[in-house]
Amino acid sequence: MSRETEGISKSLDAIYPRPDPATKQIAEEMIAASGYLSVFKDFVGMFAVVNAGLAPEDQLKPEHIDLLTKIVYRTVGPELQSLQRGIGELSDRAKANRLFIQLE
């Protein structure tokens, strides 16, 4: 996701007329938020790795995984919501033809 978001940002820079500053800001915020998504994905994937190395009686239980996920989501959740909003805002701006500075 980070690579794709950086691609959006670089593409906006390369297209004339110049990108609207608000659009560029949305893309930059998405880059930061996509890093959180990557970390959260790795965090969730970690449970399977941990449990694979433990005896069945020692494995993390679903309620433990839920609790740990809720704790981490307190920090990651707002960033993921920011990413979701950014995607929606860019989509809305593209539909309204407002990705670029209007030269009148």
How would you sum up this structure, described in words?
- By secondary structure, the chain is mainly α.
- The protein has one domain (2-95).
- The chain is built from three helices and no strands.
- Helix 1 packs antiparallel against helix 2 (21-52) and helix 2 (21-52) packs antiparallel against helix 3 (62-95).
- The longest helix is centred in the C-terminal third of the chain and has 34 residues, at 62-95.
Span between N and C termini? 35 Å
SS elements, strand count? 0
Sketch the major β-sheet.
Answer: none
**Unreliable stretches covering 5 or more consecutive residues:** none
Query: Roughly what is the average pLDDT, rounded to an integer?
Result: 83
- Gyration radius, rounded: 19 Å
Q: Which sequence of SSEs, written as H and E, runs from N to C?
A: HHH
Strand content: under 5%
Integer tally of domains: 1
Shape: elongated
Assign the structural class, choosing from mainly alpha, mainly beta, alpha/beta, alpha+beta, or little secondary structure. mainly alpha
DSSP helix count? 3
- Which bin fits the share of residues in helices? over 70%
Quick overview of this protein structure:
This protein is mainly alpha-helical and 104 residues long.
Q: Which SSEs are present, and which pair or pack?
A:
Blueprint: H1 2-14, H2 21-52, H3 62-95
